[in-house]
Design brief:
220 residues, alpha+beta, elongated, Four Helix Bundle (Hemerythrin (Met), subunit A), 26% strand, two-stranded antiparallel sheet, 8 strands
Length: 220
């Protein structure tokens, strides 16, 4: 691969990107940008990587965006035109509408597992996210001292303890089945199903930990 000298792009740009603080898609202004063209001499492939520091025009949050194109990834249209496919990554990784819940109301083991699962989901690591969701449920069962020889029995024990409703337990059993399929069959489900599963788990964490914590603060 040829060594290419990075060159600064002078023209300021605006991208429509998800924002962690605004919790949705907002306009992000490019503060600094560097373009790095490259070429593989052996096979004739060439491309360009762009690295940008961006700021949300809504809240001012600063983050990092990288994008890349190359001569091998091209989409051809029926009208005879074509365009390079762009691959984009954001740091920190995030998904619009997937904001963390109040992590400081969670016990330490549950908080750590939740943050790692949330990060895997936002990074698009769906297999790890699916396994993490099952492990997150296990951490709640452990913290609440749920009894049983397996996760199924422990979830049912949470119902008998009054931590979960029967309806909530049935949903967690579905997520438990998803975790088993991810771990043992390496089946990759779509992001939409994982997103719904995470909604359910976050609802559980809010009802078990976050809301009771807020209620305690009201008493003081």
């Amino acid at each position: 691969m040829k060594d290419s000298t990075a060159k600064e792009i002078k023209d300021k740009k605006v991208h429509r990107l998800p924002c962690r603080k605004c919790d949705g898609h907002t306009n992000h202004e490019v503060l600094e940008s560097v373009e790095v063209p490259w070429e593989k001499e052996d096979d004739g492939i060439h491309g360009c990587d762009v690295f940008e520091i961006v700021t949300c025009r809504g809240c001012g949050e600063i983050s990092f965006r990288s994008s890349s194109t190359n001569s091998e990834d091209i989409t051809y249209f029926n009208d005879g035109t074509a365009q390079f496919d762009m691959h984009e990554e954001l740091y920190p990784n995030r998904i619009a509408g997937r904001k963390e819940i109040d992590i400081y109301s969670l016990p330490e083991p549950v908080r750590t597992m939740y943050q790692e699962t949330h990060k895997a989901l936002c990074t698009g690591l769906n297999i790890l996210a699916g396994i993490g969701m099952g492990t997150l449920i296990e951490s709640v069962c452990r913290e609440k001292n749920a009894q049983g020889q397996n996760l199924e029995n422990k979830i049912n024990d949470l119902v008998s303890k009054g931590v979960l409703t029967i309806e909530g337990a049935s949903i967690l059993h579905m997520i438990r089945d998803l975790r088993n399929r991810y771990a043992h069959e390496i089946i990759v489900l779509g992001s939409n199903k994982l997103d719904v599963a995470m909604d359910v788990i976050e609802n559980l964490l809010n009802s078990v930990y976050v809301i009771p914590k807020k209620a305690e603060r009201l008493k003081k």
